[in-house]
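S., here's the first fold you wanted:
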Amino acid sequence: MKKILIAAVALAALAGCGPFWMNPYITVEESRLNWVEIHYYRLDKTPVYRKAVRLSGDGFVELRKGTSELISNDFAKHNELDGWENIKTQRVHVDPAHINDIFQNLVNHGLLDQEKTFKKAKNPRKDRVLGVKATINNMAYTLQDNIFEVDPDLAEHLLDVVREFDNPTL
């Protein structure tokens, strides 16, 4: 009986019926708890130019850009470095339905797909780095690798979001 139970659990897991398996291509529900944070760095310039965009499901968008380490790390402590004070912040409120459309587009292009984690490109990008963290419909996603290397298609869509809110015409 014990062997039959183990075989049934293994078969269910292989069939995709396990609590650890979730469909990463979901319909995004409008929620104030959804958020996406995108970090973009240009490494071909000295000092490193950084941009960070945080989108919240309630329509709040914050863009931070400059050369300060504070853009990518709120707890940075190297205040003696040049460019420490070089940080510009823009905060705007947009229609939550528009933010939800952005979230849905990113999900459709594989934002929550964990299958691509730890996959590297044959030609690594050294001039640009793109990172993302997100929580959408209670599904958390963090990728430490450069998305330009892991998923260039998703990277271009994330970069489009950064461009959309960098110098918006309101």
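And the second, which I think is the more interesting of the pair:
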Amino acid sequence: MKKGIIGIVLLLSILGLNGKAVAQSRLSLCARFDVTPQLKSYYNSLDSILQTRLGDDFLFRFTTMPSFDPEYAIQIESVEEQYFLKVISFDKNLWYAKDAAGINIDECFVELETELAEQVLYLSRQFIDNKIDSVSIGGTTDGDLYQFEINENGAISCGQIWQPAPDSPLGRFCLLCAHLKDGCLTENKSKNQ
């Protein structure tokens, strides 16, 4: 992922994501809205796929749960003091799939430069540490739910946001995570050709 790192680092700089900006955006507590059998089934399927494909050995995980677009998750892992980015990306939305077995999942696993990994870890920790002590699902039933998780020695801290404003620090951070996903998958495809 080295080719795209300069662009991503510049993106971080341009976005102005720093401690002060992070304090102005707030995640809410993580909650699963499994109030119906369909939602419960959705979350069970998603959790099973995340566990099977990504495991629990992560420092940071970002998961998207959009109403209509395909889900994806990225996570940063550390192996022998080197950082790696692991990505899974669904080819269709899990909610609308007849069953999870019918979904194709692209995966990639690439080395991540230390400076970029540490900046993402720092920012995600700031967002999670500054979350509000309530649950918010937004003012609509359709949209995108973004979940942030930090794993510190097996203790998971989690925060989520429903439809962040695109120009807010959280909205820009979600965009950065999408760029990390796209860069990883593109690099993985070029290696396999």
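Why I say that: The helical segments are 2-15, 19-23, 37-54, 114-129, 169-191. Confidence is low (pLDDT under 50) at residues 17-24.

Talk tomorrow,
H.
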